[in-house]
């Protein structure tokens, strides 16, 4: 695809970690990269210019939610997702497949489609592979995802096989329906933590020659060690010359572990969700901002961070904001948490270029094992 080129610049001599550049119509994404999540067209509590200031390159939006409100046709009429969100960089939209997992009680699934009962007003939203493509084409993101089925990690093998085969069949239909050359359509490898089913899924998707591949169905309840071992099996199956995306992951250490296993792109709601619940990710570990010990602390949230929150505000003030319920607290903490995630990725990138990715993991674990 002329609009998308992936350049592999360096691979760590001691792991599968790699540094690269992914060219898109709205700019180049330096990988590995973490994408903040803007589910309904907005990263909660954060201005777009603040996302740029903390180093975010690409953000994610949610097809299911935007199809419900305001509707993809409205977004298209307002100039497409980039203008709608006032974000000039690359955007990725998911397909609605994760909602098959997360909204089980509100959907009906068969071999041809999924029908959701809207959590907003009870109206029905039908997604077929073709409809998922049409919605995402109208939204206009740079990278879009095939409609897939994300099953529970502990589902019976027969149920996992059904989901893998449905995902493969839908991927073919998505590729056949997709029209826009200025969008990269990714296939999604499913199979839970079952190595044989991961291989079955990859073998079904690789002949379709997608410009990138995602690993789905992880961070849905399995133990971290199971996620890592699944990546050990899955990532080597994916093309070296195309971007690899681990969906919905995760904690900073999970991102580090994923990068060491050859993953390039990540997204997760954890930085902003934790911020809204008064939890900060810092160089000293996770910190609970409501703890009384911070009440008269004049120091910064994280002395090793130069984000606006850490530069301009004290821990004591931050605790006060959360204690009295001021909305500025979650906003400031969201900026910091996103800055922390971007800092981890930048540090990891530097370590990879020095063939020291494994050393960075050990050093990160050592310095963040505390927390207050």
TrEMBL record:
Q: What class of enzyme is it?
A: transferase
Pathway the protein acts in: tRNA modification; tRNA-queuosine biosynthesis
Q: Which InterPro entries match?
A: ArchSynthase1/Queuine_TRR (IPR050076), TGT (IPR004803), TGT-like_sf (IPR036511), tRNA_ribo_trans-like (IPR002616)
- GO cellular component annotations of the record: cytosol
Q: Which GO terms describe its biological process?
A: tRNA queuosine(34) biosynthetic process
Which terms does the record give in the GO molecular function aspect?
Answer: metal ion binding; tRNA-guanosine(34) queuine transglycosylase activity
Q: Which reaction(s) are listed as its catalytic activity?
A: 7-aminomethyl-7-carbaguanine + guanosine(34) in tRNA = 7-aminomethyl-7-carbaguanosine(34) in tRNA + guanine
Could you list this entry's UniProt keywords, alphabetically sorted. Glycosyltransferase, Metal-binding, Queuosine biosynthesis, Transferase, tRNA processing, Zinc
The record ties this protein, via Pfam families, to: TGT
Q: Where is this region: RNA binding?
A: 248-254, 272-276
Q: Which cofactor does it need?
A: Zn(2+)
Q: Quote the catalytic residue positions.
A: 94 (proton acceptor), 267 (nucleophile)
The residues the record assigns to binding Zn(2+) are 305, 307, 310, 336
Function, as annotated, reads: Catalyzes the base-exchange of a guanine (G) residue with the queuine precursor 7-aminomethyl-7-deazaguanine (PreQ1) at position 34 (anticodon wobble position) in tRNAs with GU(N) anticodons (tRNA-Asp, -Asn, -His and -Tyr). Catalysis occurs through a double-displacement mechanism. The nucleophile active site attacks the C1' of nucleotide 34 to detach the guanine base from the RNA, forming a covalent enzyme-RNA intermediate. The proton acceptor active site deprotonates the incoming PreQ1, allowing a nucleophilic attack on the C1' of the ribose to form the product.
Subunit field text? Homodimer. Within each dimer, one monomer is responsible for RNA recognition and catalysis, while the other monomer binds to the replacement base PreQ1.
The protein's name: Queuine tRNA-ribosyltransferase
């Amino acid at each position: 695809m002329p609009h998308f080129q992936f350049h592999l610049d360096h691979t760590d001599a001691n792991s599968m970690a790699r540094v690269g550049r992914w060219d898109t119509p709205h700019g180049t994404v330096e990988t590995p990269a973490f994408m903040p999540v803007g589910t309904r067209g907005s990263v909660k509590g954060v201005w777009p210019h603040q996302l740029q200031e903390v180093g975010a390159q690409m953000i994610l939006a949610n097809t299911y939610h935007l199809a419900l409100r305001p509707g993809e046709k409205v977004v298209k009429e307002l100039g497409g997702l980039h203008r709608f969100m006032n974000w000039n960089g690359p955007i990725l939209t998911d397909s609605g497949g994760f909602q098959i997992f997360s909204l089980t009680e509100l959907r009906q699934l068969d071999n041809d489609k999924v029908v959701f009962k809207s959590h907003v007003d009870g109206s029905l939203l039908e997604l077929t592979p073709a409809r998922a493509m049409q919605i995402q084409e109208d939204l206009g993101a740079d990278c879009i995802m095939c409609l897939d089925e994300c099953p529970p990690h502990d589902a019976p093998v027969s149920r996992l096989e059904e989901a893998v085969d449905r995902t493969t069949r839908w991927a073919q239909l998505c590729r056949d329906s997709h029209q826009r050359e200025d969008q990269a359509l990714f296939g999604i490898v499913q199979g839970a933590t079952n190595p044989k089913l991961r291989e079955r899924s990859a073998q079904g998707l690789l002949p379709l020659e997608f410009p990138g591949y995602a690993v789905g169905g992880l961070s849905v309840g399995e133990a971290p060690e199971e996620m890592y071992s699944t990546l050990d099996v899955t990532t080597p199956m994916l093309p070296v010359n195309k971007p690899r995306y681990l969906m919905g992951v995760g904690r900073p250490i999970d991102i580090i572990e994923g990068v060491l296993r050859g993953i390039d792109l990540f997204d997760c709601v954890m930085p902003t969700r934790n911020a809204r619940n008064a939890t900060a990710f810092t160089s000293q570990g996770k910190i609970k901002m409501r703890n009384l010990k911070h009440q008269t602390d004049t120091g910064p949230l994280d002395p090793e961070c130069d984000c606006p929150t850490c530069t301009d505000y004290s821990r004591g003030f931050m605790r006060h904001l959360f204690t009295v319920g001021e909305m500025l607290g979650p906003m400031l903490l969201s900026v910091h948490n996103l800055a922390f995630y971007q800092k981890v990725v930048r540090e990891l990138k530097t370590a990879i270029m020095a063939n020291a990715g494994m050393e960075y993991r050990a050093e990160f674990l050592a310095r963040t094992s505390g927390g207050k």
